[in-house]
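Supplementary Methods. Inverse-folding protocol.

Structures were first reduced to a discrete structure-token string of length 379. This string, shown here, constituted the complete conditioning input.
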């Protein structure tokens, strides 16, 4: 069996570069203040664009899968927090308490949006349901994550920031820009949808700005005197255990609920991931500046681990789907031909000339044509 090694996300290299730059040349004084101001502005723009990109049509297309969405939300906001509490309790005795808080914090975050949808599409899952589930998770996360942080972290004596100040910062930096962007979608939505590649760097640049400023403050406060290879190893092990448990339970729940393959894929990718793009700005709003660098370090480790694992799973399921299509690439009896072409019409898939009845209507051709239509394969 051929083993495919997932490609390293270039964004990881930028993240590592920011950490190295902050470690070697940390921003201080007025320079750090300037970076913090730029990061705050980038975060406001980021959540404004998130609101503007949230398509009501896409949400309505997948909203009918309410049972699937409830299960995904249960993984994100019930199972994960329970695992985060256990991980923080067990590791808090052997690593810096701020790192243990970071493990709990990452468990309280919403799911990713872009990668969840991308991996669902790659694996042949229900993309409309993935868009709805991931968007709903992030929309609720703007409110739920600060509440969960207040209950499980700040109320436990680990508060690094005044709670009212946190609420105000979440409201002004995250919630209001998000709502403003979504309300303006009828005016700017077409332009936003047509320039997604142009706007994509906003996501990553805002995260990089926050990471650099957060780690600069952390380095000035002696982060690398508190974090060594042992602590990094503990964080990686804890992240792997949490992710492994979630994926295993996910499979059990999907089978017990009788989910179809495409819906089970949505549950896995939307219920097992945590958002770095949302988490880093939220950490900046919910924790003191000197604590943010330590708190987001576990999230950065978990983020890359989930990308590697989910990329491997998506690639494996895509190969299985393609193999099934290839195995079915044989001429079908006339009645099966007619049923397949009728199904293609039901889902709005134009039937190419080579698939007309009596010639070679088969699953492989229809599958390839569908992938061409979706832009996943060249014509």
């Amino acid at each position: 069996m051929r083993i495919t090694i997932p490609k390293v996300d270039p964004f990881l290299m930028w993240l590592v570069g920011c950490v190295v730059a902050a470690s070697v040349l940390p921003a201080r004084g007025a320079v750090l203040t300037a970076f913090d101001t730029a990061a705050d502005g980038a975060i406001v723009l980021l959540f404004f664009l998130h609101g503007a990109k949230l398509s009501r049509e896409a949400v309505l297309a997948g909203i009918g899968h309410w049972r699937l969405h409830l299960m995904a939300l249960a993984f994100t906001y019930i199972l994960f927090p329970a695992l985060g509490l256990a991980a923080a309790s067990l590791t808090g005795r052997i690593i810096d308490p701020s790192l243990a808080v970071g493990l709990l914090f990452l468990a309280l975050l919403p799911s990713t949006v872009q990668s969840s949808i991308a991996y669902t599409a790659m694996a042949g899952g229900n993309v409309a349901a993935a868009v709805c589930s991931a968007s709903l998770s992030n929309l609720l996360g703007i409110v739920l994550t600060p509440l969960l942080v207040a209950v499980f972290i700040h109320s436990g004596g680990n508060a690094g920031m005044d709670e009212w100040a946190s609420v105000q910062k979440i409201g002004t930096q995250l919630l209001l820009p998000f709502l403003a962007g979504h309300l303006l979608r009828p005016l700017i939505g077409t332009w936003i949808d047509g320039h997604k590649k142009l706007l994509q760097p906003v996501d990553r640049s805002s995260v990089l700005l926050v990471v650099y400023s957060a780690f600069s403050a952390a380095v000035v406060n002696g982060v690398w005197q508190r974090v060594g290879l042992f602590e990094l190893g503990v964080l990686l092990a804890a992240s792997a255990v949490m992710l492994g448990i979630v994926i295993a339970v996910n499979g059990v729940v999907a089978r017990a609920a009788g989910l179809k393959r495409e819906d089970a894929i949505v549950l896995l990718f939307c219920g097992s991931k945590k958002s770095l793009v949302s988490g880093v700005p939220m950490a900046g709003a919910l924790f003191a500046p000197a604590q943010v660098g330590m708190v987001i370090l576990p999230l950065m480790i978990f983020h890359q681990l989930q990308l590697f694992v989910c990329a491997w799973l998506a690639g494996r399921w895509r190969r299985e789907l393609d193999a099934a299509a290839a195995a079915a690439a044989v001429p079908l009896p006339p009645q099966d031909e007619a049923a397949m072409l009728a199904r293609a019409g039901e889902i709005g898939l134009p039937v190419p000339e080579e698939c007309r009845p009596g010639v070679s209507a088969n699953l492989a051709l229809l599958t390839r044509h569908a992938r061409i239509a979706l832009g996943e394969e060249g014509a």
